[in-house]
Amino acid sequence: MRNFADFAETTITRKQLYRGKIIDVALDDVQLPNGGTSKRELVFHSGGVGIIAITPENKMVFVRQFRKPLEKVILEIPAGKIDPGENDHPEVTGKRELEEETGYTCNSMTHLASMYLSPGFSNEMMHIYQAEDIKKTANPKSQDEDELLELYELTLDEAEQAIKDQTVCDAKTVYAINWWRLLLAQRSG
């Protein structure tokens, strides 16, 4: 069996194409393990955190918002970009985003998974946390000025229907609903 090093590509040159608020974009010329060369379009992102929050009434918390790349409104679990200084503590991002986007706070968070969302071109990693003991706060942190969100709380059946009708269509939220389904199955079985 070949080892993973046999597949490594070596960067020959990197051209910075764009530096933005959320992403940086580069174009690499690479040496392939078979001796050939190729180009790689790369997107660099600081990463994000998605929060699975279940209410005392056994409903999952979602936010409804317009997503410009998709040109449509979708339902998602609360989530946000890791800000500078939060890289070593994504749960800080999670607690901040939960409160800003939903008005809920929590006592603690449990890390469930970390995953690359599109490793073919991006290094963005999403950390998924479960918020423990959520409760509404009287004076939540304010939302980002450029975010227009609407809060939804769905049962598992409603959430699964949202996947079927493509109201839920992003990886982190599909993961969250499937995780919830498995959790409930374990508790009942």
TrEMBL record:
Stretches assigned to coiled coil: none
Enzyme Commission (EC) number: 3.-.-.-, 3.6.1.13
Keyword list, A-Z: Hydrolase
InterPro entries named among the record's database cross-references: NUDIX_hydrolase-like_dom_sf (IPR015797), NUDIX_hydrolase_dom (IPR000086)
GO CC annotations, alphabetized: cytosol
GO term, biological process aspect, one: nucleoside phosphate metabolic process
Record's keyword annotation contains Zinc-finger: no
CDD domains per the UniProt record, alphabetical: NUDIX_ADPRase_Nudt5_UGPPase_Nudt14 (cd03424)
Top-tier EC class: hydrolase
GO terms, molecular function: ADP-ribose diphosphatase activity
Pfam families, per the entry: NUDIX
Residue ranges of the TM segments: none
Gene3D superfamilies assigned: Nucleoside Triphosphate Pyrophosphohydrolase
Cofactor(s) listed: Mg(2+)
Domain Nudix hydrolase: residue ranges: 44-176
PANTHER family: NUDIX HYDROLASE DOMAIN-CONTAINING PROTEIN (PTHR11839:SF18), UDP/ADP-SUGAR PYROPHOSPHATASE (PTHR11839)
Protein name listed in UniProt: ADP-ribose pyrophosphatase
